[in-house]
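Task card 7
Instruction: Convert sequence to structure tokens.
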Amino acid sequence: MAAALGAWRVRDDRGDMLEVFRLTGLMCLLAATAAGIQPIDSVLLLGDVERMRRECRESAELGYTGWITIHPSQIDVVHDSCFPSDEEIAESQELVEAFEANRKLGKWAFRFKGQMVDVPNLKRAHTILERGRVRQQIASIAKPT
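Output:
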């Protein structure tokens, strides 16, 4: 896209994506989600592993569910950064269980760990649990035999 636009660069002096590239990425995320297809991001960094981890994590938190890598060294970063942690999975499971208990009482909104939660929180918890299952599947495939 940079070449098509005639852009001289994709990142600013701090290493952050220039706004036009960030905007088009977000538009693709929204369009893919609206169309019911998998939103896929690209991992474009090499060398700066910490920035790569942060960007991958942000991408996952925004809703991307797949990543295109350009180098084998990026694969472990994607696997480590783009899936929920064990703690996030455990908390999501607790929330699903709390919803079930509250649903039986006729409540679809209640306090959970000091926060008001409702159906969108339940949907997010289910998404995190599904991403956790995908992480487990990848881990079982990636294990050497």
